[in-house]
Amino acid sequence: MSIKPLIILPDPLLRQVSKPVERVDSHLLKFAGDMLDTMYDAPGIGLAAIQVGEPLRLVVIDIAKEGEPQAPQIFFNPEIVATGEGTNVHEEGCLSIPDYYAEVQRPDTVTVRYVDKDGKQQEMVADGLMATCLQHEIDHLNGVLFIDHISKLKRDMVMRKFKKLARTA
Ligand code: NI
User: How far is the CA of 47 from the centre of ligand 1 (A)?
Assistant: First the structure.
């Protein structure tokens, strides 16, 4: 079990576009395990590799509710190949933007193509919280944060707060 330090706003790393994973090997699987440990410790329900400083297209998610058995999922090179026509509003937060939450509107269903832990290509259709979570995490791989989906006024407020926190840390 290894918990990695989280990258926090306004670290410019969060704006970096992550590179595709070329091959799923034991080293990468161990790293994904460390990401899950870090996510559970935080605690959170999703984490992208860039949030622990690795610009790789790798996401881990576990949306199991408290009291339910853990249901970790690992996505290498996840890509949204289709979105539903409806939208959903969920309150989102981010381990890289601690203690800030805002409602974000996104497509209510997504089809995601990804490579699984065995190196096999898979496709998943997700709705509800899973759809939101996948979109939030895949955004991270492209340097996009959930605050980019809220009003500029609110985003500027959050940025000011975290810049000030970084200065006084
Ligand atoms: Ni996030």
Answer: 6
Closest to 158 measured CA to CA, from 114, 95, 97, 116: 97
Neighbours of ion ligand 1 (CB under 5 A): 94
| Predicted pLDDT of residue 1 | 73
Distance 44 CA to ligand 1 centre (A): 9
Angstrom distance (rounded) from CA 124 to CA 109: 10
**CATH code of the region 12-168:** 3.90.45.10
Alpha-carbon span 166 to 164, nearest angstrom: 5
pTM, entire model: 0.97
Q: What is the pLDDT of residues 122-146, one digit of tens each?
A: 999 999 999 999 999 999 999 999 9
